[in-house]
Structure formats: structure tokens, C-alpha cells
Amino acid sequence: MDADERQSVVWSAIEALAAEDGVAPSVQHACRACVAAVSAIGGGVSMAHPSGVAEPLFATDAASGEVQLLQFTVGQGPCVDALAGQRAVLVKDIKSPDSGRRWPLFSRGAVALGVGAVFSFPIQSGAIRFGVLDLYRRATGGLSALELTDALLYADAALALALDRDGDSSSVERLLDVTFVGRQAVVHQAAGMVSVQLGMSIADGMARLRAHAFAEDRQLGQVAADVVARKLRFHADGEGTTVRTTDETADDINTSGDGAGDASSPDSGG
Amino acid sequence: MELADTLVADFDIIDFLETLAERVVELLDVAACGLLLVDQHGALNLVAASTEQTRMLELFQVQTAEGPCVECFRTGQPIDVPDLAVADTRWPVFAPAARAAGYRAVHALPMQLRSDTIGALNLFSETGSVLSADARQLGQTMANAATIAILHQRAIRHMELVADQLQTALNSRIVIEQAKGVLAERHGVDVDEAFVLLRSHARHHRYKLSDLAMAVIHNEQVIPAP
């Protein structure tokens, strides 16, 4: 179908940029590829802090970094609202009276920096809030329906990359599962359960769940179903996580060696 | 009906859609109702249902790949299956699963904004039946109300950019699934019971379901064990 083709285009674009850099795909590549896909002049990714602040993490260029920093400094702007409201904020004319009323300091500053339109997309999945993907355009005007869909797909890809804590994003197939989990209630339920089992945030619970699925070469949905059916439990132990099946015939499976240990992930919220 | 609530700033879309699904079940005398929305990947996702039983949720989920909702979404036309017993060739996974769950008839009504279809309203019946013209009309009215509530005034006026609004509704749904898992683990209950706990606590204290779900996840609200 059409949507699946777009999905492939999105991941191919991200992979191509990463290949140019000679590194595994990361959130930065998702941002750069998105900027190119929607003909923006630049963009950036800000990371959500538990305090609710969106801190600039990456910008495609110096000018975009300044726009990002401006939002961070004055504490207002589309990025700030996208994070707080957990929804996309689409500003087709930053010079408009509406924008001026909503973000008096930011809109003035953005105009001075030569920005005409700003589009901010949360990088999130339910209570998992990684941050915000910003896109800046010189000209005023909105995104087309297709550009909007693309931007949402890139924001999803950015989340998949952000959740890939063991840093082996070289295999895109293993990243795709998370972008499709919206269809599987059981994955979100399992992430919630694992977060309680390990005493960590939902984001970390999801990361552990995925790390386990990858390590065992199983589908995320199957592992999640086992967790919800209480056939599988995650236990925190020193260096990492032990996963136990409740079936006595099966041995404990220790996934602490797969790099999903405690040190690898800054815990955001929860 | 409660549609006027959409004009209120702190309106909760999931609460509204769940209530709507429950009303549909009463008004049309069907066994279950669910609302599925398309996401940015072009796939259908459940956003609200009259019953949150896992068994039912799985029936909605099967329809992300095949079934009356997918057909309804693709064609923009209502799909009526008065007898699931003869639908195995058409939907080899969905039809047997729906029968095994005790349903004999299923219907899907399109959720549309002008020419765009954003999802489908799905009805399950335990008796093999054809929807009467009146029931069909009523069901479609409810599907339209759900569409308006999801898209709010902006898209209705400007005919544009609905994808982000669909995603916002679906994201609220994910928060609830995550909270079900958190509660299930904390209280040692299954996820179906966890949802009942969550919803009754929300209704009793007049919290928005999504707000309460988020508070449960962040351990800011404690729901007593059953």
C-alpha cells in the first residue's frame, strides 16, 4: 500500500544519511531527512526533561540552532507547546497576530532570524515523551497533507531510534516493530507492566522489552503478550535485567549482556 | 447528546468516544461497538470501545489487516455482514475469530469528513441481523458525531491537515493501555480488571480518563486495589 511505501522511503532516507556519515542511524538522521523531505530550511530535535523543559539536543544548522535556543531561552514557542500539549503545533505564519499573541517573545525573535513558518511534532508514544521535532521554513504557508504525514512518520522513526538504547540501529527491520506498535494494545500494556517490575519509566520499560525481543529474536508483540499473560517477568538485578519465564522447564534468560543495562539510558520521567 | 462538550477546553476525547460507543450499543441494540482511526502509516487503530475486554480488543485489532473495517475504510462505504458464517472466504482470519467470540453479524460504518475517510465505526451483534434503515441512520449519525469530536472545529472549517489530530486521539489511547499495564502489575490483576478500576475511579472522582491514566503512570495517583 501507499503508506507502506512512504514508510520505506522514510527509512531509506534516514539510512542513506547515516551511511554518508559512516555511522548507525540516529535521531539526528531522522531530523535531517525530515527537513529535506518537507523542504524546510532547517530543523532540530529537543529532548524532554522530567521537569517539562524541552532542551535543544540537535539542530541541522547554526541558524536552526538559534531558533531552538530562542524557544528554550524564552520558554515559549511551538516546540514548548508541542511538548506540553502532546500534540503537533503547526504555525504557518509566525508573523501573524495570533502567533504574536501566543508567543510574543518567540515570534518576534523568530522573525528576526528569518523564519516564516514553524512546525513542531512531539516524539512520543503515550506517556513516553522523548522530545520534539521542529521544522523551520523561511516562507510562510502550511504543510501539505502529504508533508504532514511524512513529518509524523519521521517523528515516529525518531522515537524508534531514540528507544534503541543498545545503539545497534544498523538493522532497520528491528526498528520497524516499534513504529507499528500503535496497532498492538498488548505492547503498551506490557511496557507498563515491565516499568513497574523494574521500577523505571515506561520509556525504559519499552526499551527493555524491545532489547529482550531482539536478543531472543522474537517479535515484540509475542514477547509483550507473554508479559501480559504473566508467562514472562523482568527482574532488576545488579548489572542488568533478568527475564524469567514462569514455565519451570525453561531456564532463566539473562539479557544483561546485551547492552540494555542501567548505565545505557538516561531515565526521562516516570 | 454530549457533543456540546467538544466546545469545552478540557474535553477528553477518549472519554467522549467511549461514552459514544456505549450509547451506540444501547441505542442500536448491538453487543459491542468500537471506533477505529487511521494513523500516519495508513493502518487502522482502535481508539475507543464499548467494552475493553481483551478478547474484544483483539477482534478490533485483527481488523487492522482484514475485515469489514478495512473494507469500509478503503471504499468509504458501509459494510454489512448479516451472517458471519458465510464470510470465511472473504476474511479467513477475522470471520472465524468473530464467530468464536460469539458474534453472528458485524457492520462497519464510515467515519468521514467530506470525501476523506478517517476511520470506521464497528458494530458486533450476537444475533444474525440486518440493520434497519433507522438503525443505520442513527449509527451513521453517531459516526459523524465521533468524527466531528476528533477533528474539532479547525479541520471542519479548513478541510485540511487531519492527520495530526487523528494521531493526538490515538496517542491518548496509548496512554490508557500503558496505564492498564501499570495498574495490572501493581495490583496483580489482569489488564481487563485494571481498566475497570481505572474507569470507575475516573468516573467516581470525575477525572478525565486520560489525565488519570497519566497520573497513574507517573505514580501521582494511587488507585486502591480491588
TrEMBL record, chain A:
<dbReference type="InterPro" id="IPR029016">
    <property type="entry name" value="GAF-like_dom_sf"/>
</dbReference>
<feature type="compositionally biased region" description="Low complexity">
    <location>
        <begin position="261"/>
        <end position="270"/>
    </location>
</feature>
<protein>
    <recommendedName>
        <fullName>ANTAR domain-containing protein</fullName>
    </recommendedName>
</protein>
<feature type="region of interest" description="Disordered">
    <location>
        <begin position="239"/>
        <end position="270"/>
    </location>
</feature>
TrEMBL record, chain B:
<dbReference type="InterPro" id="IPR029016">
    <property type="entry name" value="GAF-like_dom_sf"/>
</dbReference>
<dbReference type="InterPro" id="IPR012074">
    <property type="entry name" value="GAF_ANTAR"/>
</dbReference>
<feature type="domain" description="ANTAR">
    <location>
        <begin position="156"/>
        <end position="217"/>
    </location>
</feature>
<keyword id="KW-0805">Transcription regulation</keyword>
<dbReference type="InterPro" id="IPR005561">
    <property type="entry name" value="ANTAR"/>
</dbReference>
<keyword id="KW-0804">Transcription</keyword>
<dbReference type="InterPro" id="IPR036388">
    <property type="entry name" value="WH-like_DNA-bd_sf"/>
</dbReference>
<dbReference type="InterPro" id="IPR003018">
    <property type="entry name" value="GAF"/>
</dbReference>
<protein>
    <submittedName>
        <fullName>GAF domain-containing protein</fullName>
    </submittedName>
</protein>
<dbReference type="InterPro" id="IPR011006">
    <property type="entry name" value="CheY-like_superfamily"/>
</dbReference>
<dbReference type="Pfam" id="PF03861">
    <property type="entry name" value="ANTAR"/>
</dbReference>
<dbReference type="GO" id="GO:0003723">
    <property type="term" value="F:RNA binding"/>
</dbReference>
<dbReference type="Pfam" id="PF13185">
    <property type="entry name" value="GAF_2"/>
</dbReference>
<keyword id="KW-0808">Transferase</keyword>
<keyword id="KW-0418">Kinase</keyword>
<dbReference type="GO" id="GO:0016301">
    <property type="term" value="F:kinase activity"/>
</dbReference>
